[in-house]
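We modelled the chain as a single entity of 172 amino acids. Its sequence is:
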Amino acid sequence: MNIDDDDFKLFGLDERFALEPARLDRRWRELQAEVHPDRFAAQGAAAQRVAMQWSVRVNEAYRRLKDPLRRAAYLCERRGVPIDAERNTAMPREFLTQQMAWRESLDDADGTDTVQALDDQVASHERQLLQRLEQQLDTHGDAQAAASLVRELMFVARFRQDIDQRLETLQP
């Protein structure tokens, strides 16, 4: 292992969006068992510091690969298309229209059932976007289109948090 390896190489995975979560989890446990600082206790403080660096590196890579949005953003960046969501907020007109309709629906929702129905609708849209994202990254190799989908998914994730907060306020 090389600490400078990309996340996929570090975990022994193909550089693809689609991955087996169980394989990722298993490999994370294996890597943590190899680099855990407690294994190096008898070798002194320097060895433990290096092991700690490795442990942090493995955990960071694991978190990035485990989360579909972070994994997609990482793949886009590796392919020369950074997400840059703070400055690049351009979205397709259809998605902006959908966004506004969802916001209005959330604002007008008068009960848990209505908000839950909206969440179901948004979750379905999120699944569709994730499928399209996988196609763009793994089948078509279009990082530019994938980056646009990642930005849409980032909005969807934030909006679903708003829905969760709304549901919490409606709970008795």
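As a brief sanity check on the tokenised model: The two ends are 52 Å apart (CA to CA). The chain is about 75% helix and 0% strand.
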